[in-house]
Amino acid sequence: MASSKSLTAHTQPTLAQLRALIAVVDAGGFGEAAAELNVSQSSLSEAVGKLEDLTGRPLLRRSARGTVATPAGLRAVAHARAAVQAAGDVLLAAQDDGALSGVLRVSSFRSAATHLLPPVLVAFGRQHPGVVVRLLDGDRAGAGEQLVRSGQADLALIEGTSAADLRLTPLLRDEYLFIAPQSRGTQPVTVQELADSTLLLSPRGDACFQRIETYLGRLGIDASSATTFDQDSVTLGMVRHGLGITLMPRLALLPVPDGLVTLPLPQPLTRPLAVAALPHRAGLPPIRAFTAALVDSLGAWPWGLSDRSALPD
């Protein structure tokens, strides 16, 4: 490793070197990163090596989990993401609204990706064929927000009405429903019935479980004994066969399977959905256009799901 150098205008890192560092950190290895960037592993290694020469310290190290960033590398990669993103934003900002191009990375949780995004992707693709939209997994609580903050996503569909350092565009409020076997009938749901029922819920680590746990806690019901399943289809299958009841947002339930009854909860519970972007990037033409397409698409939704009147601006 070369000794530390005083950085001048002639010793600044290149965008290629920064992209190389980001790729290796994200992929967890040089081989995987080289394939992702469509370059040779030797050229990738050389780019990272030159960046380490400039910093005067190692940025990556090998571990049992593959190639990982050193503490200095973690600090450097955060700024590398910002620098690469800023360089790309120069080109995005100069685009005309009617001739957009590039790659747009959108993070979404499962139910939104299943029901909200497909018609938006079709309409957006027809209007802006030069933009490639890549979907990223944002199911884990807080994952979408973090992907946007780290520069790994341009937009994220999230639950909530606020997120630090992000600009949110409200979309809709999604109502939670009580779901039981059809044999239960349609009589109103009571708090006592919720307390006495076997609860079948989503995994404890996700935002849906946390919201339901808080709701039940306000009703004096302990959700700690609930059985959890990763897949909604498994949960609904268990409910259909009389093994318990569940609470789900309406959007996650569509289409309602046969053999189930869905009813309002004793006290309303909703999840506010929004699209999040970094404030200084929200006005970039591709990001602004996709956000507008998403908002416009909500007018086609039934049962008042697209009512945004109760959401903050």
Kindly report the name of the CATH homologous superfamily of the largest domain: Periplasmic binding protein-like II
Which series of helices and strands comes N to C?
HHHEEHEHHEHEEHEHEHEHEEH
Output the radius of gyration.
24 Å
Number of strands: 11
Tally of alpha and pi helices: 12
Strand content: 15-25%
Using the 3D structure, state the CATH architecture of the largest domain. 3-Layer(aba) Sandwich
GO cellular component, one term: protein-DNA complex
InterPro entries: LysR_HTH_N (IPR000847), LysR_subst-bd (IPR005119), WH-like_DNA-bd_sf (IPR036388), WH_DNA-bd_sf (IPR036390)
Keywords: DNA-binding, Transcription, Transcription regulation
Organism: Deinococcus humi
Keywords, please?
313 residues; alpha/beta; Arc Repressor Mutant, subunit A; D-Maltodextrin-Binding Protein, domain 2; 3 domains; 7-stranded mixed β-sheet; 12 helices; 41% helix; disordered C terminus; WH_DNA-bd_sf; DNA-binding transcriptional LysR family regulator; DNA-binding
Structural features, described:
With 313 residues, this protein is an alpha/beta fold. It folds into 3 domains: 15-91, Winged helix-like DNA-binding domain superfamily/Winged helix DNA-binding domain (Arc Repressor Mutant, subunit A, Orthogonal Bundle), CATH 1.10.10.10; 100-172 and 272-300, Periplasmic binding protein-like II (D-Maltodextrin-Binding Protein, domain 2, 3-Layer(aba) Sandwich); 174-269, D-Maltodextrin-Binding Protein, domain 2 (3-Layer(aba) Sandwich), CATH 3.40.190. The chain has 12 helices and 11 strands. It has helices at residues 15-27, 30-37, 41-55, 71-93, 110-115, 117-127, 143-149, 191-196, 207-218, 232-240, 250-253, 285-297; strands at 60-63, 66-69, 102-108, 131-137, 155-159, 167-181, 200-201, 227-228, 246-249, 260-264, 270-277. The strands form 3 sheets. Strands 3, 4, 5, 6, 9, 10 and 11 form a 7-stranded mixed sheet that branches. Strands 1-2 form a two-stranded antiparallel ribbon. A two-stranded parallel sheet has the order 7-8. α9 links the parallel β7 and β8 (227-228). α1 (15-27) packs across α3 (41-55) and α6 (117-127) crosses α12 (285-297). It is elongated. It starts with 14 loop residues before the first helix and ends in a 16-residue tail after the last helix. 33% of the residues are buried. The model is unreliable at 303-313 (pLDDT under 50).
